[in-house]
């Protein structure tokens, strides 16, 4: 595995008026890893994601993606790099006026210049890949349950075969069984498609089952980014409360039970 | 890991994929990726009939993504491809990718029912007719509900909601005042010009005054104000309430034991019923001012004479007939706007559809009612 990071965030500043969200924030994302980003509410997890994908121009600092500083590229060059991103928004953000098949075919038609029939065929494959039944392809987002919307949104994020997948709280609002299935799906797809995943989450179970590394946002910067065991041992009040509070202990216990059940 | 998409590799530098049939082996080479999808798809379609039962050879394969893998599945069938994978020499990532795509595509495809176009047309017509009936039914029900709530609240001053009422009054009345005044002024001038042109042939230009005064007091003042408010306010009501519906705020109001009609509809309806008569009055005045200006500039009828003729010829009943229609129109516009908001169904597109529908419906109702009223007043001799 190449050890050159695909995304390098250096000295990132983000402020809205007098409110400072990030100050001198550094973060690396390595190829084929799942990086979990955690932090209390209002620590700027989503703002960091939006800064990296270019929705929220940072107030200062550099974000290097695939070795290029995106802020210095022209709009067309930027767009070519951005096609290597896939983003799953918190609410799904599926286009309500299109059915699922059309939602996923849209970027394929626009960017890969496929015909509508080809694009829709590929779209149905992507939907199947995320575990949706074939009849879902003709449904509209309003007709779907929360879990199906998340899966369809993931299928759209995967439409252009991105190299980096950004997930903003993918399991929020899902029932525990659906959330566990979604965690599994993310790992499966990462292994099968060789994705690099940037995962913003609150869900401790997701952290334990999917993430290779965890970055903790606190005090306007990344407090620590390392494997889960090392992060959990960091001497910080918030981290200790987060990982060793009642929910954290339950997640660890569940994780240990799971790993014991799987021999080898 | 020779096939890993290298990070240093520039975008666009790859060899197009190719499939070659030699004897009993199907040799894949080059990059099987989305960028070459159309070309690969044509090749796959051409080879498909002969490729069945062949052994795939992946030794020359470059990069692979889900699009390319789906074409391989299309060529060989998912079962054949999965069984061939076990023998194939492939990097683990690509093996896992092909496996995942094969399994995903190995599902029965959904049956699409075909419908006779004549039957579809009839069904569509039936749907439209029933939905029109339903629309009228719903509107009647909603008017009843609003009136019921209104009469329940009226004798209970502690349930009067002043803040939303004043806010709606400000928005529908005061903010609409300049545009209503300007438009009626212009239309008043236009009517005076028209009258002047036509009446000149009879040497009766002095009756331009009566024309402007009659038309604005009886019809144009209230009609123009009502149409403007239908476009301006009915749409705003629909969008406001519709957005609340999308955001589940209406459900929240209900679960808190509150009545959305009392909270949202009644203040808006009352504010409209207050502001439209005021706007109508403003409309009448400024329309007549527009007429008077044209009379003064083009017909040499000074404003003092204009007022004198209006005082002499125009009875008070014409003013009352015009003003009396305003609260009725206001009630209908507000109720239609609110009802369409309640009908919004959880999507951005639905908000747009119902906003359009509320404007069309309220303008239609205003004009329809106005023509019925004109007929009625004429027969009554008012």
User: Average pLDDT of chain B, to the nearest integer?
Assistant: 87
Label the overall shape of chain B: elongated
Beta-strand residue percentage of chain A = 15-25%
Strands side by side in the biggest sheet of chain B = 1-2-3
Give the number of helices of chain B. 13
* Continuous helix count of chain A: 10
Features:
heterodimer, A: 264 residues, alpha/beta, Rossmann fold, 2 domains, six-stranded mixed sheet, four-stranded antiparallel sheet, 23% strand, B: 382 residues, mainly alpha, Transcription Regulator spoIIAA, three-stranded mixed sheet, 73% helix
Structure write-up:
The complex is a heterodimer of chains A (264) and B (382). A six-stranded mixed β-sheet of chain A has the order 6-7-8-3-9-10. Chain A has a four-stranded antiparallel β-sheet with strand order 2-1-4-5, with helices on one face. Chain A folds into two domains: 34-57 and 68-84 and 162-264, P-loop containing nucleotide triphosphate hydrolases (Rossmann fold, 3-Layer(aba) Sandwich); 95-161. Helices cover 41% and strands 23% of the residues of chain A. Chain A has 264 residues and is an alpha/beta fold. In chain A, a hairpin with a 2-residue loop joins strand 4 (60-65) and strand 5. Chain B is mainly alpha-helical. Chain B folds into two domains: 18-105, Transcription Regulator spoIIAA; 155-380, no CATH class. In chain B, strands 1-2-3 form a three-stranded mixed β-sheet, with helices on one face. Mean pLDDT of chain B is 87; it is low at 1-12. The interface between A and B is large, with 42 and 35 residues.
Quick recap of the structure?
With 264 residues, chain A is α/β, with parallel strands linked by helices. Chain A contains ten helices and ten strands. Chain A has helices at 45-53, 75-82, 100-111, 116-129, 146-157, 176-193, 204-210, 228-232, 237-244, 246-261, and strands at residues 7-16, 19-29, 34-39, 60-65, 68-69, 85-88, 164-168, 196-200, 213-218, 221-226.
